[in-house]
Write a structure and sequence with these properties.
single chain, 191 residues, alpha+beta, eight-stranded antiparallel β-barrel
Length: 191
């Protein structure tokens, strides 16, 4: 076996490169969501008007490195029964068996897979959403501002409720719009 300095150099460089890649891959940083300063809301056209609702029971985990946003991961779990709308009768209908069916499907899961830089503080979020046992991919624009150990993300996406089997039968199907806009505003701090 040749142990000359010329042969050792590539091996040392390879080990150094491997160590650097390992360290770079471990840069994902945990962040904690400030629930009091954050919100998850939805809007749907129904009964001749626009109706807004807000989810009050949710939580999540975020791994994010501002220097490497493509490696961002987040899992947000929302309790479907926590949706409140005005008037209260709409909340009961929205979380009932014909729509979200919160008794049989208590959680809505949002898994962020990456943030693709789109210039400045703009990104394209790549995620999957699971509701009522159906998972669908989505991509949508977000704004992300990071100042020191604080981050503020805002964005919105549109879901077709029929894709998830929400409110697709009975008389309500014709009275409620298929497009549901979900708006998120998350404030987080480095854990």
């Amino acid at each position: 076996m040749d142990t000359s300095p010329a042969m050792k150099r590539p091996a040392v460089l390879a080990l150094a490169a491997l160590a650097l890649l390992t360290l770079t891959g471990a840069r994902e940083i945990a962040w904690t969501v400030d629930r009091n300063a954050s919100r998850i809301e939805m809007t749907v056209q129904a009964f001749g008007g626009s109706h807004r609702g807000r989810f009050s029971d949710w939580g999540g985990d975020i791994l994010f490195d501002p220097a490497d946003p493509d490696r961002t991961r987040a899992m947000i779990v929302v309790r479907s029964a926590s949706l409140t709308m005005s008037p209260a009768a709409i909340s009961e209908r929205a979380t009932g068996p014909a729509f979200l069916d919160a008794a049989r499907h208590p959680v809505i899961r949002f898994d962020l897979r990456s943030l693709e830089p789109a210039g400045g503080d703009r990104y394209t979020a790549h995620a999957v959403v699971t509701m009522k046992g159906v998972t669908r991919p989505l991509a949508f624009p977000v704004d992300l501002h990071v100042t020191g150990d604080r981050a503020h993300l805002t964005g919105a996406f549109v879901l077709n409720r029929a894709d998830f089997g929400i409110g697709t039968s009975g008389p309500w199907n014709r009275l409620v719009g298929r497009q549901v806009t979900v708006r998120v505003a998350l404030q987080a701090r480095r854990a």
